[in-house]
Amino acid sequence: MDVLAFILYKLAMPTIRPASSKIVFQNSCTSPLGSIKLAGRINQSLGKDQGRQRRLEAYALVYSLEGKCNYWDEVIGHRHLDPGDLIVLLPGVAHRYGAGPDGNWSEYFIVFEGAIFDVWRDQGLLSPEHPLLHLAPVSFWEKRLASCLEGRGSNERETAVRQVCRLQALLAEITGASGGETSAGPAWIDRACAMLGSLETQSMDLPEIAHSLGVSFETFRKTFAQKTGMSPGRYRSALLIDQACELMTQSRLSGKEIAAQLGFFDEYHFSKRFKKVTGFSPTAFRRRMRGA
After folding, report:
1. Range of 6-20, 167-181, 228-242, 255-269 with top mean pLDDT
2. What H or E segment, with its residue span, contains residue 281?
3. Is 150 helix (H, G, I), strand (E, B) or coil?
4. Which CATH entry fits the domain spanning 3-175: 2.60.120.280, 2.40.50.100, 1.10.3720.10, 2.40.50.690?
5. Any residues with CB less than 8 A from the CB of 252 and at least 6 apart, and which?
6. Could you tell me which CATH class the domain 188-291 is placed in?
7. How many CB atoms lie within 10 A of CB 70?
8. In terms of pTM, does the model score above 0.85?
């Protein structure tokens, strides 16, 4: 199955609600190293049909966001996947996967190809014997996967090279540290991410959150930073500013109204935090978005 066929498969497969499927990136340009060809998010597969087995001509990463997934390939056989499990699909390997019969399943996927990834496979860094990894917390790793699509260059070819380099860095991160396996981390990491991103717990300070998770603040702080790559405070700030950016681009709320909705002390506090994270004041950010 080539990349075009994979696109059509993702957009038209009968077990997906079309309104819940979103192709977030599609690229026809390549580079000497390779390129990311396609990426997207599919929500709530109905789970009625596993589909027939297929063989891709490209590489792909498929990350389980929620629900249960059944996976099979000709090398390792059948596996049951949970949220946080990552499938690494290699060209030519027969496989199939889909939601289990008892529930819905959502995924984020990236399709890529190129000579540099063939080198990874030749060296055993991408191997059909080890197609499954586990990455937690889910909210963090979905953003890390999406970050591979960043890095725009002055032309399409330069953009493709930058994205390939970002993807290689991510692959090194998730496969290199422990010989192809990643640590899922303690069970409370996902709950911590949810609490840090929730407006309902915005008034709780970090020691309170640690206590509610049943761990000491020192354990919470160090383990969270180790597993996500950032401190709990920085993670909370990044999520809040993400929400602020979305509100500024999709609503007519004023800076004062956004500050109040997101739980900031006042508009000045919000503006100061926003500029520290993004490098722009809220006013400058709105101006740039209008001019985009």
Report:
1. 255-269
2. none
3. coil
4. 2.60.120.280
5. none
6. mainly alpha
7. 17
8. no
